[in-house]
Design goal:
Length: 571
């Protein structure tokens, strides 16, 4: 609940007003049976019609007070919940921006989606139900028991005993259910994973005739969720049955005991109606609370899962240094080592090389040699384990990520465009870009096809850019990278997912841009021929170690011997 309280704190006055309205609602509700008792004891038994009219008007006022309190309370609690859930999602998003790759891997993409959507919704619903259906319970119980004691001490003690029994039973069962709901939420995460895998890998499933296997796996996943849900519902079904039994026994007990006390002259007949109404109201509110308590452990688990993300300390910390924008060396690896958190051996070991401003450098090597890991270190998705990585003369660990990323543009292996418009995607590179800036970047990236679209810059882009070809997407991705005027253009296998003709066109484009704008380009590639043709320098990796640092016109035979033949000699 600490997570919920953290987000409620900024709205303490709204929360206070909501609770005040809730108390007025309870007062109005309890005032009605008190007035009914007076009408019976004084007005009906003595035949005082005027008194009945007076109490009737007061009863109408109490009902209006209760109704207004209910409506206003519902509005205020909905407003409070909307603001709290909005802040939760913003906080989760902001926190995710501080995470490195290892932090994301700790939770998993599916779990982060569940926490940002499902868990926040459940926590918000839990907040609404707690304020509307749980917090009024102690107020109702205390005030109703006090009114019962004012009518008759014995009857007040009887009502108090019944209330305590029901509340204790509800709390015990809710605690037992908390563990089940934790497992239930993890089952939802698993369902999310399985469904995403089935949708993303549907072609692979069909290609290997694994439909029945996946159907069985999906069925088991849903059955696991259903089993936990059924066990939790059994608990609350038992609680609801016990509560209904107690309500009816309580009413019978009140009528029986109070009837004897009326006969003995200790209680007036109208008070039986009031006591019965007090008991019904108490147990009705408890019943509502029980309905919420069926859900509340689930909401608490969701809030704790949100808190686990927000409380996680990222292993990547921002510094406050600034980079030297005129430094001749744009990127420098000084004896850099890197281990993944769960790895026994270094992924990269003893890297030493520098990238000068205005040059194109290609990092070559076979799959698994560490090329993409170098790109991640430069982008600071991970921090180096040993040695120093400098960008524009400054250790990246002393830079803030905003400072670092403002000097780097990234062209990924598989170009990704976001849903929206072409202009929206280009503004990822520079949010203050003018139309002229965008057209200049598109023209530089040879994206003339945009001018042929009906809406030009405002043309719609589907999620992932699926309404464009691979070459078109890659050109827009390059234009987006150029919007930033970066100190370093980082291209991670920019043509690996394209056909040879389109891939060569993209590399020719990158070379022309580099020569025209004197950009510093670092390109990862496993294609030796293209790397030699479109770069001025080659750095060869073999099992995470630099085994070649030579001009691009080095004979291919020497490069193959240094980079690839060496790997073949490994045991």
């Amino acid at each position: 609940m600490k997570t919920i309280l953290r987000f409620i704190k900024p709205y303490k006055w709204l929360c206070f007003l909501t609770l005040l309205v809730m108390v007025l609602d309870v007062i109005g509700t309890l005032f009605v049976p008190t007035l009914v008792a007076d009408m019976i004891n004084v007005g009906a038994l003595k035949g005082d019609i005027q008194y009945i009219y007076q109490k009737g008007v007061l009863m109408l006022g109490a009902a209006l007070l209760s109704g207004i309190g209910t409506l206003l309370g519902s509005f205020l609690v909905a407003r409070l919940s909307a603001r709290v859930t909005r802040d939760m999602r913003n906080a989760l998003y902001d926190k995710s921006l501080t995470f490195g790759d290892h932090d994301f891997e700790t939770f998993g993409t599916s779990s982060m989606i569940t926490r940002s959507l499902n868990d926040v919704n459940k926590a918000g619903m839990g907040l609404i139900m707690t304020i509307q259906m749980i917090l009024p319970v102690p107020v109702m119980c205390v005030m109703a028991v006090i009114l019962a004691f004012m009518k008759d001490v014995f009857m007040g003690a009887f009502l108090l005993s019944v209330t305590v029994i029901v509340l204790v039973t509800a709390v015990i069962i809710a605690k037992k259910a908390a563990g089940l709901f934790d497992k239930l939420q993890k089952a939802i995460d698993r369902i999310n994973v399985v469904i995403r895998e089935n949708i993303s890998g549907v072609r692979v499933i069909r290609a290997f005739n694994k439909e029945h296997f996946e159907e069985d796996r999906t069925r088991k996943t849903f059955e696991s969720y259903a089993n936990y849900a059924v066990r939790a519902n059994y608990l609350f079904m038992g609680l609801e049955s016990v509560t209904m039994f107690v309500i009816n026994i309580c009413i019978v007990g009140i009528v029986w005991v109070a009837g004897n006390r009326v006969g003995a002259g200790s209680l007036e007949i109208g008070d039986i109606t009031a006591l019965t109404e007090y008991a019904i109201l108490i147990l009705f509110y408890v019943m509502m609370a029980i309905m919420v308590m069926m859900f509340l452990p689930h909401a608490i688990v969701c809030a704790n899962r949100i808190g686990a993300v927000l409380d996680r300390e990222s292993n990547i910390k921002d510094g406050n240094s600034t980079a030297d924008d005129v430094a001749d060396i744009v990127c420098a690896f000084d004896d850099v080592d890197f281990y993944f958190a769960d790895a026994d051996e270094a992924t990269l070991h003893g890297l030493n090389f520098k990238i000068k401003r205005g040059t194109t450098t290609a990092i070559i090597g076979s799959t698994g040699s560490g090329k993409s890991t170098i790109a991640k270190l430069i982008m600071r998705f991970h921090d180096v384990t040993g040695g120093t990585l400098r960008i524009c003369g400054t250790d990246v660990r002393t830079l803030s990520r905003d400072e670092l990323h403002s000097r780097i543009s990234y062209v990924p292996q598989k170009a990704w465009l976001f849903s929206g418009t072409i202009a929206d995607n280009l503004r990822y590179g520079n949010e203050n870009a003018t139309e002229e800036d965008m057209w200049q970047a598109l023209d530089t990236a040879q994206s003339g096809f945009v001018r042929e679209l009906p809406n030009h810059l405002d043309s719609r882009v589907a999620q992932g850019g699926t309404n464009f070809s691979g070459g078109q997407k890659q050109r827009v991705a390059i234009a987006r990278a150029l919007m930033r005027h970066p100190a370093l253009l980082l291209a991670d296998e920019p043509v690996a997912s394209l056909d040879p003709v389109t891939g060569r066109q993209i590399l020719e484009l990158l070379r022309d841009i580099q020569q025209d704008q004197k950009l510093t380009v670092l390109m990862n590639s496993h294609n030796l021929e293209l790397s030699q043709e479109f770069s001025s320098r080659l750095i060869g990796l073999n099992q995470g170690t630099v085994v070649l640092d030579a001009p691009a016109d080095t004979p291919a035979k020497e490069i193959l011997a240094a980079v690839y033949h060496r790997q073949e000699d490994q045991p």
